[in-house]
Specification:
mainly beta, 5-stranded mixed β-sheet, 3-stranded antiparallel β-sheet, 8 strands
């Protein structure tokens, strides 16, 4: 019986030690996502204005400052549509609206949004989430009409 009691105490002590390595409590994070993602423009006509919006949700347990950049890429070129910063209070969401138009022929393009924190949350304990950018994007293609070729007889 004495050995059973000693084994029981060692097992319980082992569990207590193991539990010390499991993070408890808060896990701060930031969400970024497209609003109405099913309605993002997938096929575009030239010289027409299109739009989209994305949201940033602060779940960091403190007010946070963010820098974001919206870039348009096509034909091996990248254009920055907007570069700005925003302060979001804890557990609040900010939605950003953006319009764009493409004026030259292209085959395929991308809208890329990058979000960076202006400072690191001191409550963040996960080393995989420290100093990480958040990036979301969507692809689109040009709609081209039929080509008419006139030949002489």
């Amino acid at each position: 019986m004495k050995y059973v009691a000693i084994a029981f105490v060692l097992i319980v002590a082992g569990f207590v030690v193991a539990l010390q390595f499991i993070p408890i409590g808060i896990e701060p994070l930031t969400e970024m996502y497209f609003e109405n993602h099913t309605e993002l423009p997938a096929y575009l006509f030239l010289n027409q204005t299109y739009n989209f919006s994305f949201s940033i949700h602060n779940l960091e347990y403190i007010d946070m400052d963010y820098n974001y950049s919206i870039a348009l890429g096509y034909n091996n070129k990248t254009y920055v549509l907007e570069k700005n910063n925003v302060t979001i209070k804890n557990n609040e969401t900010t939605t950003i609206f953006q319009e764009f138009a493409i004026l030259e022929n292209f085959e395929r393009g991308v809208i890329d949004i990058t979000l960076d924190k202006n400072f690191e949350n001191p409550m963040q304990k996960d080393p995989n989430l420290i100093n990480r950018s958040i990036d979301i994007h969507f692809w689109f293609e040009e709609i081209t009409g039929p080509t008419i070729i006139v030949t002489s007889d």
